[in-house]
Every structure is written in C-alpha cells, then in structure tokens.
Amino acid sequence: MPTLDVNGCAINYIVEGTGDPVMLIHGFASSLHGNWRAPGVVDAIVAAGRQVIAIDCRGHGRSGKPHDPSAYGGTAMADDAVAVLDHLNIEKADLAGYSMGGFLASTLLVNRPQRWRSVIISGMGDVLLQGNLPSARFDSLAAAMEAPDAASIKDPRGRAFRAFAESSGNDLGALAAMHKTRRAGFDPAKLADVKIPVLILIGNKDDPASARRLADAIPGASFVEVPGDHLGAVATPEFRNAIVAWLTNR
Q: With a threshold of 0.85, does the pTM exceed it?
C-alpha cells in the first residue's frame, strides 16, 4: 500500500475503483481495513462504480504512530485526509467518516466545505454541536489506553475501547498520545450554514436520539438508522447499503 509523508508522519492509504472519488475515514482504534475493508464497504462502493480513497489515520493501522501528543494537535488528523487528496490531484470528493472519523468529517465539512460533494457523518451525535469532544472524554480515553489492563478500568466506555484497541492490535502508547492533546475542532455555529448534502448514519442501539438532534441542526440533512451498537453497526450489511444508496443518489 502507498504511503504519504505528511509533516513527518507516514499516512497509509488505498485507492481502488474508478469513477467519482469517495474518501473514507475510520474510527478510533480501528483502521481502513477494520472499518471499511473487512465489513465490505470498500468493495460495495467500488461495485457501485465509484473510486474509494481510504486512509489509516495517524496512530492507527499501517500509518505512523507518534508517541508525541503534539503530532496529533490542531487539525492534523483531519488535514491528513486533505493531504492525500491533494497528492492524488483530487479537488473534490464525497466524504464518509465513522465515530472518530465522523468527528473528523464534521471538522472537514465546516473548515473545508469546498472539497466535498457530500458528507456522511456516522457513529456520532449531538456532541458535535459543541464543536469538539469534551475534555473529560479525551482524558478518559488516554487513561484507558495507559491502564495496566482493561479489567482495571472503571469507566465502561473506556474499558470497552481499551478491549477493542487490544483486540485490533493497536499501539496503545500512540492512542494515549492522541488523547493527551486537545485536537482542534470547528465552529459549531457554522453547521447551520452547511449547503452541501449531509447524511447522519447511526446504529439503532448506539444513540439515535442524539444523532437525530445533530441531523436537525444541519440544514437539509438526511437521517438513517441501521441495526447495531457503536462498535457493531459498521459491520452490518445495512450500514454499507445505506452508504451506497446515499452515494448513488449524489
């Protein structure tokens, strides 16, 4: 797989298929393989006549895994996606992000709207109306990654993500570093000014009410529920079918 050096960090990416491009950004402690390849999302999009560009976010998959928190500061993680598109001479693409990737997709929607035909924000809810994740969530995940083991973590969410991170073979030090910096978000007031098509996609056992509130805050946004909880929805056929159906209508 090719890599691109972005400010000293190697970003692994794939390019598959032909047609109008779609950029995919995975969730925390996952990878382009875990979030998009293994569940069949890449193949489904390619079969629908589109080109897929997917990245391993820094700290994940086959990309570089800095242990210096500053490597993840500002909008570095969102900017990596744009750097790959620039490298490929792609001026505009559709964009889909899951969980952490949904936060990054929201950042790109607000900060770089001219680069996208449409945006899918999946696995996220009305926390995005704050423009960033709460500091306590950053701290909790950093602590979970540095805990002696998953069983010792009292916070259920942190414990679940630690177990998921271990099962996915992640570099826990890199994931901890990622949450020791306050990554820049976006101005949430600008969500009301969004003029491109947006889909909010959520599992019915995740937090659909919160996701519905997010959709209501974005002019003209569509809303789709699929089966599954936060870690499981992405693996359902309904999830990939919803993405393909959305892209087919763009």
A: yes
